[in-house]
Amino acid sequence: MNLTIRNIPDDVYRTFKLEAAHQGRSLNAEVIQALMRSAYEIERRRKMRENRPALERFVASLPKVSSSVPLIREDRRRH
Q: pTM value?
């Protein structure tokens, strides 16, 4: 797949060019790496949004805990 990007700010171009050189990659390869990282993060966030209702249902199904103080005190007495 080919993609043309226009009007890249000079500072962004310089940053990518320097990082590409530092990583021993071409500018094209560096931009592809950045796009891959971004796509991974977008997908991760999408999955989190999709799973949020199930997580909230699970949390709501857990028994209510009033206070951990009695449990801690009991545990301390055993040791």
A: 0.67
